[in-house]
Design goal:
Blueprint: H1 2-24, H2 27-41, H3 43-51, H4 60-84, E1 88-96, E2 102-110
Antiparallel strand pairs: 1-2
Helix pairs in contact: 1-2, 2-3, 2-4
Signal peptide: 1-18
Protein name: DUF4371 domain-containing protein
Organism: Muraenolepis orangiensis
């Protein structure tokens, strides 16, 4: 029980920091935070990251490849979920910051039949 609460607390801290990292930092900084978070839950990975001399997964190329792979898996999962839903709602919002950088957010809402 204590281990579960400890992991939940670590996850909560990571999620809180993730929002800040994604807004203020690059995706690579976010990925490094994700690797650190997962290693805090997995002692084998944590030991590997501390002792590895060849591969640490921290180069820009490796991190970009990992991000692309994660995006691909997540995109497929979302498409499967949305395609199997009976009803979906789509919400879109656009904002432009002071540097005229435009961002579009899409929110898909649907009922997951496996959870209900």
């Amino acid at each position: 029980m204590i281990v579960s609460l400890s992991r939940a607390l670590v996850l909560t801290v990571f999620i809180a920091n993730s929002a800040r990292l994604l807004v203020r930092e690059s995706p690579l900084v976010f990925l490094r935070g994700l690797v650190d978070f997962v290693s805090s839950l997995d002692t084998v990975l944590e030991e590997h990251l501390k002792t590895a001399t060849v591969f640490k997964g921290t180069s820009k190329t490796v991190q970009n490849e990992l991000l692309d792979s994660m995006l691909s898996v997540l995109r497929e999962y979302i498409l499967e979920e949305v395609n199997s839903a009976d009803f979906i709602a789509i919400q879109a919002d656009k904002t432009t910051d002071v540097s005229t950088y435009c961002q579009l957010v899409l929110v898909l809402r649907y009922i997951d039949i496996y959870v209900c």
